[in-house]
Amino acid sequence: NPALAQDYAGDGFWERRAIAARYLSQQMLLSLLDDPDEVVRRVLAYRLPVEYLDPLIRDPDREVRITVADRLPPERLEVLAADPDYLVRQYVARRLHIGRLFRMIRDPDRQVRCTVAERLPVQSLGLMREDPEPEVRLKVAERIGPEGGQAMIADSDWRVRLRLAERLPVAMVEPLRRDEDADVRAAAAARLADGAGQARYPGAGK
């Protein structure tokens, strides 16, 4: 009964407050910013106008902060780039202005860095080609330009080398024909057999 929401805004049971919060006016929602229950505050994070979300940026509940990270304008997201929870930072990495992503290149979490590698400008991907995690380097290998890719030919992970064998200009593939991994050697040999072909670098130079 949405018309009765106001009567339950201060109810002693968290679930009734959370249900009421779905229908309260935005002005009344502000009175619940300090609600002790995270479910109620999650409703607020979803419903409040973005200009009133600042008090929830440091909320102790990560789901609240994730919702905030999903709704804040990109120019205000950087305040959450150092959040202690990797999922919050991943949302930030997905939405932060590309020019501000550099601060997240060394994020402690692999998944966050994978997201950064997917969005970082191609000309800046060289900064991540020596990342300690193969999954991150694979993302780099999928997008990096020819010169940067050539510098990754000796990568320790066969998946990275395989992706390079598939993407590098044919003139750069020759060293991979002698790779220790059979799949990499086969991919390099197939590219060389196909001839000079066009280098496949979607997005390069953009």
Low-confidence stretches: 196-206
* Category from helices, strands and their pairing: mainly alpha
The biggest beta sheet reads: none
What is the H/E order? HHHHHHHHHHH
Q: Number of helix segments? A: 11
Radius of gyration: 24 Å
Total beta strands: 0
The chain-level mean pLDDT equals 87
Strand content: under 5%
Give the % helix.
40-55%
What general outline do the C-alpha atoms trace?
elongated
Distance between the termini: 53 Å
What's the arrangement of secondary structure elements?
Blueprint: H1 14-21, H2 26-29, H3 38-47, H4 62-71, H5 86-95, H6 110-119, H7 134-143, H8 146-150, H9 158-167, H10 170-173, H11 182-194
Structural features, described:
The protein is mainly alpha-helical and 206 residues long. The protein is built from eleven helices and no strands. The chain has helices at residues 14-21, 26-29, 38-47, 62-71, 86-95, 110-119, 134-143, 146-150, 158-167, 170-173, 182-194. Helix 3 (38-47) packs parallel to helix 4 (62-71), helix 6 (110-119) packs parallel to helix 7 and helix 9 (158-167) runs parallel beside helix 11 (182-194). The protein is elongated and about 70 Å long. The model is unreliable at 196-206 (pLDDT under 50).
